[in-house]
Amino acid sequence: MSVLLAEPEVPSHWLLDANVLFSEWCRTLMHILARGHSANLHWTNQIEHECYRNLVRLGRLHPVDAAEEQAGLAKHLKATLHVYADQTYLADVRAVEEKDRHVAATALALRHRFQTPVGLITWNLRDFPRRPLLKLGIVRYSPDELFTALRPNPADALSTLQDAALAMQSTLASRCRRHPTSFEQAARPLPGSVTEWIEFLGRNRQHKSARLIERGKLEVNPYRLALPAQ
Fold first, then answer.
1. Beta-carbon contacts of residue 84 (< 8 Å; ≥ 6 apart)
2. Buried b or exposed e, range 167-185, using 16+ CB within 10 angstroms
């Protein structure tokens, strides 16, 4: 007979996987959520390197711009950058896909260091089985799951999206790329209406968030975000 594990509260320490850092939107949203939840963001050099290696490989960033951005990312997002992945707990996270065990092992190291549950935020849900990790005190979320867990009210969710959009636009406005890529030049503008947010969230794999906003569309007047002129 299987035992159902109680759904824990959202932890106050979050370890971000490389696929979360990969997206400017996603990493900005995690920063805004962490600020509102008084949570601390963490990742390792290995996670950060994997993220930027793939951004360059896929033509999202020029190597020069990638190196400059990577050097200041942790400070910009007020995160703790750990110099190396903790290898101590690799044997304890064998339920995780081998190539990703360094992420889970680091989350478990943080769990023991802070003596409190730790959130592991990743889009790669299949390789991070939630139940075995939960038994270790690691609460796995996708960014979509984390957002809807912290902002279950549509009006609050819209307000948080607005904050994240403003923060992201401020970052983009202050950035001076030496070698802008075609991907960056073709980037779409940030959403400015409820309908645009629903489409944007769906395009960025935040399907639960999109449904939440869709539900709120029936409960609140459609509104336009007051984003600065681009």
1. 44, 45, 46
2. bbbebeeeeeeeeebeebe
Positive or negative CA dihedral for 203, 26, 121, 102? Answer: positive
- Residue entry with tokens 């336009």: 224
pLDDT, average across residues 157-184: 95
Q: What is the DSSP string of 68-103?
A: HHHHHHHHHTTEEEESS---TTGGGGTTS-GGGHHH
36/20 Cα distance (integer angstroms): 18
Measured distance between the N- and C-terminal CA atoms of the chain, rounded to whole angstroms: 58
Question: pLDDT digits over 187-214, tens only?
Answer: 999 998 999 999 999 999 999 999 999 9
Are the C-beta atoms of residues 82 and 30 closer than 8 Å to each other?
Answer: no
Cα–Cα distances in angstroms (integers) from residue 122 to residues 54, 73, 130, 133, in the given order: 16, 18, 11, 13
* AA identity, residue 61: L
- Chain-centroid distance, C-alpha 55: 16
Interior CA angle at 100 toward 103 and 133, to 5°? 65
Please give the model's pTM, rounded to 2 decimal places. 0.91
Structural contact between residues 124 and 19, judged by C-beta atoms closer than 8 angstroms: yes
Go through the chain and tell me how many residues it has.
230
User: What pairs with residue 109 in β-bridges?
Assistant: none
